Fold this sequence. Notes:
The chain contains ten helices and no strands. By secondary structure, the chain is an all-alpha fold. It has one domain. The longest helix has 27 residues. The radius of gyration is 19 Å and the shape is elongated.
Amino acid sequence: MFEPLMFMVVLWVVFAKVLGRATEDFLPFILVGLVMWQWIKSCISHGSNAILEAHQLILQVRLPPVVFPLVTILSDTVKFAIVLGILIAILLVLGYGRSPALLALPLVLIAELAFLAAVTLWLAAFVPFVPDLRFVAENVLVAMMFLSGIFYDATTLAPAIQEVFFLNPSAFLIKEAREVLLYSRWPDFVGLIEVTVVCTLLAVAAAALIQRLHRYYPKLPR
Length: 222
């Protein structure tokens, strides 16, 4: 909880007190974006390194390497679920999310989990061969943080820009989470299904690739 909460406080001070540009729902808006983004960032950052960091364990135990990034994703998802539960409780107290649309939140979370699995497994497959890929991924994540609409409402952009902007799955998923949690609107079901199906197929393909590369991982220098 601590990191997104501290980040939210800093942003509130900057926008509300220093710049004087905060809107009435600024805090809930920022907090939903940060919590959803923290799940993305944690899973990709930790999971992409999982096979590389498990090098010694792979030498000692006969386990499919895909287990290590999947366990990391599961661990970070459990932590996220706790934070999300607290966030939903806070929003309900503040009067947000009190509509049947809240029932669609699991669909948003499933789509995001599929997206996380796809990105994390593809990175985890290649990081053992190119360890510096970790730093590339970290820098891309920093860029994506500012391109995912966490700090601003991307729906106010020009329609032509929005079409490109929301091709970014993280931006799309954060927007849909806000639709449900803040605005009591049903999400884009077609878009969520498309993200889930495509990312699930990519995740399965990445898992199959990791299995094929299984015999090479123990031979790589640590």
